[in-house]
């Protein structure tokens, strides 16, 4: 890796592990995740509910609640800055400034007793040391940027619709122009027409501010819309990662195939859906072998013995699947 | 908003009329005939009838009630049977003492309860939480008069820092305020804790942290403001209670407040004083309730929106 390339890397995570130590047992939410994100790129983090996507994002923000959460990591750097060793008061400078997060549910993500203007202005006051008046002015600009008239800055969250609230949440996250934006299912709580608007807005803003982004979602359509790269997560591990083309058009992992098969096909309305059978394994009691093996149509005895490691298929494309030890193996899904 | 306040103030009228009638009826049933106790044992029936008229005790309950309300509207609460003093004057003499004690009591209660409750909630299930809750339990179970006596023993008799009783200056109010405040703080602490626990789980605190807000501000600014409504509710109830007088503490510390006035008057079957003081207290309590509702609107914009609708 040349120096210039290294400079471009915004996020570098090595071997991230997060577990929640509860009274009912240890929940292994994230089990050794490596992620690298370069400047201006958008990574889609895809997987079912409970795959550890949100926990990964919270760990990047160092916001995993402790107790019960315990984070272990070999390396966690944002824009070259080591986040792991930072004390709490320094982390406060990073959060909202270098990296910020858009939360899943706009209905609950805003504080009901403060005006939306104040909530946007707050991070500007903290990070850019603006006066209350200047911060309010900038908050008005931010509102306009996300398509809300600035006069509404003095209104409270309950006076906004769901889609508008999500725009406010986006405005809060972008207020200090962060290098890295973590968007945790930003459209899940919205209806489809608003989803499209919000995605378009995020794409525009990303272009405008050169922000790198991790888009957490289980909506593959949303990934296709905004992402350059995709990482598919299952039971706290990345099972397939690569460019959008790699994962969508040259799908190799059986789980990724399962995700695509679960999508309804609008061209063939009579076709039956092929959902992935079974459920995600209990994170307090993960199997020794491949976590997906119990649900996998291609699983062999070899899959149950050891956890498959990520291997490179091409320069950009990596998968973790034991079945490919057999050079003849391929999944059913073919390039569309 | 102003319409709401006006509406609430107008609602004061039927409430006061109702309460006055209730007090009137209860005293009529309970007190026996006060004319006899005033006239003495050897009064003739004629003297008693004259006295009854003079004391305004002639006529049916309804007649007397209407007469009383008429006087009340002119600010006349009648004359005490015992001291022959104007009840309104006596009440207004005692009221500043009660207001002073009530205010300081609530300051003591809030000053103890909010920090303890927040600490307990933020460090849930830790040693700090347990300590706070045990303190609250002790405060709740300890009888007022007993705590009052303990404080007198230690701070007045042994250390000599505060007077044992009376109402001379600020120093004499400290011990009664601590006595009553401690027992009120107990409930207020528990309310603060449970309300904060509820709020601490909310997503918007994570949003605040993700913005880079310091943990201290997350708790004191973002969380506390949202946790305030139940705390204000309990505060309002307790403040109303102490406005009616804290009889036990007033007795222990010989504090000349409204509570003792009423209790002494009941003992002496001094009906005008009892009725007058209770009607005035009702008015104060209703006003406090209105203020509490207005504070709700100030704290939570969603409630304000309901008022203006």
UniProtKB/TrEMBL annotation, chain A:
GO biological process: peptide transport
Keyword DNA repair: no
Pfam families per UniProt: ABC_tran, oligo_HPY
Membrane-topology annotation of the record: Peripheral membrane protein
Keywords assigned by UniProt, alphabetized: ATP-binding, Cell inner membrane, Cell membrane, Membrane, Nucleotide-binding, Translocase, Transport
Cited InterPro entries: AAA+_ATPase, ABC_Ni/Peptide_Import, ABC_transporter-like_ATP-bd, ABC_transporter-like_CS, Oligopep_ABC_C, P-loop_NTPase
An annotated GO cellular component: plasma membrane
PROSITE patterns on file: ABC_TRANSPORTER_1, ABC_TRANSPORTER_2
Compartments reported by the entry: Cell membrane
Main localization (coarse): membrane
Residue stretches making up the ABC transporter domain: 13-260
GO molecular function list: ATP binding; ATP hydrolysis activity
Similarity section: Belongs to the ABC transporter superfamily.
NCBIfam families: oligo_HPY
Record's protein name: Oligopeptide/dipeptide ABC transporter, ATP-binding protein, C-terminal domain
Lineage: Bacteria, Bacillati, Chloroflexota, Anaerolineae, Anaerolineales
TrEMBL record, chain B:
TM stretches of this protein: 9-27, 101-122, 134-157, 169-188, 227-255, 275-299
Membrane topology (UniProt): Multi-pass membrane protein
This protein's GO CC annotations: plasma membrane
Annotated localization: Cell membrane
Protein keywords: Cell membrane, Membrane, Transmembrane, Transmembrane helix, Transport
PROSITE patterns documented for this protein: ABC_TM1
Domain ABC transmembrane type-1 as annotated: residue spans: 95-296
A Gene Ontology BP annotation from the UniProt entry: transmembrane transport
Assigned protein family: Belongs to the binding-protein-dependent transport system permease family.
Cross-referenced PANTHER family: DIPEPTIDE TRANSPORT SYSTEM PERMEASE PROTEIN DPPB-RELATED (PTHR43163:SF6)
Protein name listed in UniProt: ABC-type dipeptide/oligopeptide/nickel transport system, permease component
Origin organism lineage: Bacteria, Bacillati, Chloroflexota, Anaerolineae, Anaerolineales
């Amino acid at each position: 890796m040349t120096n210039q390339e290294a400079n471009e890397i915004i996020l570098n995570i090595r071997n991230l592990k997060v577990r929640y130590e509860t009274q009912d047992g240890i929940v292994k939410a994230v089990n050794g995740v490596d992620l690298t994100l370069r400047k201006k790129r958008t990574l889609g983090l895809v997987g079912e509910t409970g795959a550890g996507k949100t926990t990964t994002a919270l760990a990047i923000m160092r916001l995993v609640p402790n107790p019960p959460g315990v984070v272990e990591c070999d390396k966690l750097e944002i824009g070259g800055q080591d986040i792991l060793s930072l004390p709490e008061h320094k982390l406060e400078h990073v959060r909202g400034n270098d990296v910020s997060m858009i939360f899943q549910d706009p209905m609950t993500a805003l504080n009901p007793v403060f005006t939306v203007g104040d909530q946007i202005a707050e991070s500007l006051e903290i990070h850019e040391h603006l006066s209350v008046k200047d911060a309010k002015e900038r908050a008005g600009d931010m509102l306009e940027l996300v398509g809300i008239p600035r006069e509404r800055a003095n209104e409270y969250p309950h006076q906004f619709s769901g889609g508008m609230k999500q725009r406010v949440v986006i405005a809060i996250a972008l207020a200090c122009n962060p290098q890295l934006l973590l968007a945790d299912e930003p459209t899940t709580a919205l209806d489809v027409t608003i989803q499209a608007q919000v995605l378009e807005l995020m794409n525009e803003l990303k272009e405008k501010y050169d922000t790198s982004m991790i888009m957490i979602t289980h909506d593959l359509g949303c990934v296709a819309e905004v992402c350059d790269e995709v990482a598919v997560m299952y039971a706290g591990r990345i099972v397939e990662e690569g460019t959008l083309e790699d994962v969508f058009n040259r799908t190799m992992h059986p789980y990724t195939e399962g995700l695509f098969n679960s999508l309804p096909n609008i061209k063939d309305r009579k076709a039956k859906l092929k959902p992935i059978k079974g459920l995600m394994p209990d994170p307090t009691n993960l199997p020794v072998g491949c976590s997906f093996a119990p649900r996998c149509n291609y699983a062999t005895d070899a899959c149950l013995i050891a956890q498959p490691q990520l291997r490179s298929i091409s320069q950009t494309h990596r998968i973790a699947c034991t079945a490919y030890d057999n050079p003849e193996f391929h999944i059913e899904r073919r390039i569309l | 908003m102003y319409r709401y306040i006006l509406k609430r103030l107008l609602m004061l009228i039927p409430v006061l009329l109702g309460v006055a009638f209730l007090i009137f009826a209860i005293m009529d049933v309970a007190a026996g005939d006060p004319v006899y106790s005033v006239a003495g044992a050897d009064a003739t029936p004629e003297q008693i009838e004259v006295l009854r008229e003079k004391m305004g005790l002639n006529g049916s309950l309804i007649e007397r009630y209407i007469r009383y309300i008429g006087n009340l509207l002119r600010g006349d609460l009648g004359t005490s049977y015992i001291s022959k003093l104007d009840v309104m004057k006596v009440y207004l003499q005692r009221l500043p003492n009660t207001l002073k004690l009530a205010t300081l009591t609530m300051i003591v209660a809030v000053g103890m309860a909010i920090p303890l409750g927040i600490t307990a909630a933020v460090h849930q299930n830790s040693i700090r939480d347990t300590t706070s809750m045990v303190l609250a339990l002790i405060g709740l179970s300890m009888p007022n008069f007993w705590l009052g006596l303990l404080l007198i023993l230690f701070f007045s008799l042994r250390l000599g820092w505060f007077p044992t009783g009376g109402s001379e200056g600020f120093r004499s109010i400290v011990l009664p305020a601590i006595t009553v405040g401690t027992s009120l703080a107990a409930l207020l602490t528990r309310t603060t804790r449970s309300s904060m626990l509820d709020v601490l789980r909310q997503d918007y605190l994570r949003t605040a942290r993700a913005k880079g807000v310091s943990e201290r501000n997350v708790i004191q600014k973002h969380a506390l403001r949202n946790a305030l409504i139940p705390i204000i509710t309990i505060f309002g109830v307790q403040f109303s209670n102490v406005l009616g007088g804290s009889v036990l503490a007033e007795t222990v510390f010989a504090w000349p407040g409204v509570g003792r006035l009423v209790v002494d008057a009941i003992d002496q079957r001094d009906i005008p004083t009892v009725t007058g003081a209770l009607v005035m207290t009702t008015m104060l309590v209703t006003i406090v309730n209105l203020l509490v509702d207005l504070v709700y609107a100030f704290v939570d914009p969603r409630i304000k929106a309901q008022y203006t609708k």
